Amino acid sequence: MTSTTEPTVPLSVEQLSATTLLRFATAGSVDDGKSTLVGRLLHDSKSVLTDQLEAVEHASRNRGQDTPDLALLTDGLRAEREQGITIDVAYRYFATARRRFILADTPGHVQYTRNMVTGASTAELTVVLVDARNGVVEQTRRHAAIAALLRVPHVVLAVNKMDLVEYKESVFAAIAEEFTAYASELGVPEITAIPISALAGDNVVDPSANMDWYGGPTFLEHLETVPVSHDLTTCHARLPVQFVIRPQTAEHPDYRGYAGQIAAGAFRVGESVTVLPSGRTSRISAIDLLGEPVDVAWTTQSVTVLLEDDVDISRGDLLVPTKDAPATTQDIEATVCHVADAPLTIGHRVLLKHGTRTVKALVKDIPSRLTLDDLSLHPHPGHLDANDIGRVKIRTAEPLPVDSYADSRRTGSFILIDPSDGTTLTAGMVGESFASPEPVKAEADDDGWDF
Amino acid sequence: MTTTVADVSEEGTDSPYALSHLDALESEAVHIFREVAGEFERPVILFSGGKDSIVMLHLALKAFAPAPVPFSLLHVDTGHNFPEVLEYRDRTVKKHGLRLHVASVQDYIDRGALKERPDGTRNPLQTVPLTEKIQAERFDAVFGGGRRDEEKARAKERVFSLRDEFSQWDPRRQRPELWNLYNGRHAPGEHVRVFPLSNWTELDVWQYIAREGIELPEIYFAHEREVFQRAGMWLTAGEWGGPKETETVETRLVRYRTVGDMSCTGAVDSDATTLDAVITEIAASRLTERGATRADDKMSEAAMEDRKREGYF
């Protein structure tokens, strides 16, 4: 186990290249030890290098602290250090022999909802941290609800500070059970509970000697092995056209390629495709994968697609399989998180960016605001303030081919932009808010601690 | 050569459709280049001849092939450059038929618009020529090779980072970046700094260079060089002002991990003469790239943040 994270054993170039990438986000409230966990993870996985540690030791000494304050590894801005607060999401990087990790480190105190939404929007896994002494609290439910809303495929419940509850299995089991029941009801597809002590290092990188009763993976081991799902058979293929490549050179007089990053599913040469919103159809004659011709390409590859016919296609169009085209609509109902300081109101004229297309739009109605603490709906709030989550009806100036966010996190999401100053106002998810609850499996406990 | 789904199924990946980390990073960076090409009028790539900007240019070439790169290049020339790097810069520009803009620190010093610092370091002096060039040429998107793993202020930087008419960065007024929906809206006079390598680490950059067979300036590989020690770093002797009388020159086997102004970019002892050797060396190193080789970051705890606020890249 430790050998996989020990960089003093040099890895071969092949070993280093055969890794995959996992993007994950942490969610934590003020005192649950998130900075310590992140610090511990970076430190114990040998991702903190000597000069970084020296800088932290130096800064800690200047503050009169005896031991290095690992939170200084992550609080990077002058204002953060001066005030001891964390502003906004930071991204951190570490690697083991098995995987590369991008951690969206979202601060707990300031404006937490929009920060967590920002971090979770690109994450394949979210870590919800709980203080073992306090168990599932309002904040925990809020984090679970946001992970469910953003449809993050994997959720890890890290029950921290196990050292302060004498490493008792019963404490952990009760918290894990309560959380799993709640999150499953919200439709979170996979929940893994892990008992840890970030401060003492139990089950973070190395297995804990204090919790023999726990048979599951350590926190890092789970991050290294959680499957990143790429089940394309159930995905609707979608390619938002970013840019039309037309060299018009002697060598390539007639080349006309539609460049974009495949948002979902796979495309094949010979496949019949439809261009939205125009509805024109053609057939894929070739796919270039950054200079190399391929027969098939899939999410999230950046490709250039060539078609048999000269169809009028420009940036903002969406290429889809003819047999699997979404309907286009000018009326969008969505769950949104308002991320700007000024409120979002009915009648607000905005810009809506969906895929590569930006259109004018009007906020027609705000039917409800969600109270994350108890998931109750406040009807007709009239406006959404910063960090509010609510249902919104939007009329767009042009028809858009939107998917349900449940089907595609890429083509079911959008942002609203203030046309006057360009501020990003709102993050939007098309369709139903929460996944329909799946029945909690009542089978024998043969999956270890994989709740 | 064509690829089928079956061909790409590798042991160790999660599914036949999982991209390797390098493919995922490459695809994301290409997406960023294409977003800028689609949404901006006058983008430019900051190009120093260093490995990050070389990788950026390589990605841009792939993103728009077989068409030419729809961006020009901008080099902020401190006047203290490594000759091998300038030679590489000019050769690359010529090879790809690109247009190069140069903002020269030496010009500013010669006409009295900038003053040489007592320590001789010209890195902080780059900000004024850079920002004035951006205004003069009306660049609205400026690609930088900055990576979030370099420095903790950079860990907070957005991929699309709005700069005001004075090119200033305000970390407290950054736009949240949701999904891959980058917001490039800006008022006249403002511009957006774009960092396609945000999510790359130093090791990713080197692995990508190896995989793609990208040529680099020779100073990245071990070679014998006349250096002297200052503030714990091996600096190259030269007309820029080193060594002083108390400093002695010696010949050592060294290479560079970063390329910048000669006055503040240190060499590291190394016998890595090949890409594989360099990658193995970095994977085992206990020092960060900037910690090992950059004097300017050591000036204060917030040196990078302070420079970035003023408009530095």
Automatic annotation (TrEMBL), chain A:
One of its GO terms (biological process) is sulfur compound metabolic process. Residues 430-451 are annotated as: Disordered. Keywords: ATP-binding, GTP-binding, Nucleotide-binding, Nucleotidyltransferase, Transferase. SUPFAM superfamilies: EF-Tu/eEF-1alpha/eIF2-gamma C-terminal domain (SSF50465), P-loop containing nucleoside triphosphate hydrolases (SSF52540), Translation proteins (SSF50447). It comes from the Bacteria. It is an enzyme of class 2 (transferase). Residues 19-233 form the Tr-type G domain. One of its GO terms (molecular function) is GTP binding. Gene3D superfamilies: P-loop containing nucleotide triphosphate hydrolases, Translation factors. Its EC number is 2.7.7.4. This is sulfate adenylyltransferase. It comes from Streptomyces liliifuscus.
UniProtKB/TrEMBL annotation, chain B:
GO terms for biological process: sulfate assimilation. Coiled coil: none annotated. GO terms for molecular function: ATP binding; sulfate adenylyltransferase (ATP) activity. Belongs to the PAPS reductase family. CysD subfamily. Pfam families: PAPS_reduct. It comes from the Bacteria. InterPro entries: PAPS_reduct_dom, Rossmann-like_a/b/a_fold, SO4_adenylTrfase_ssu, Sulfate_adenylyltrnsfr_sub2. The lineage of its organism: Bacteria, Bacillati, Actinomycetota, Actinomycetes, Kitasatosporales. It comes from Streptomyces liliifuscus. Residues 290-313 are annotated as: Disordered. Keywords: ATP-binding, Nucleotide-binding, Nucleotidyltransferase, Transferase. This is Sulfate adenylyltransferase subunit 2. The keyword Protein transport does not apply. Residues 43-266 form the Phosphoadenosine phosphosulphate reductase domain. Its EC number is 2.7.7.4.
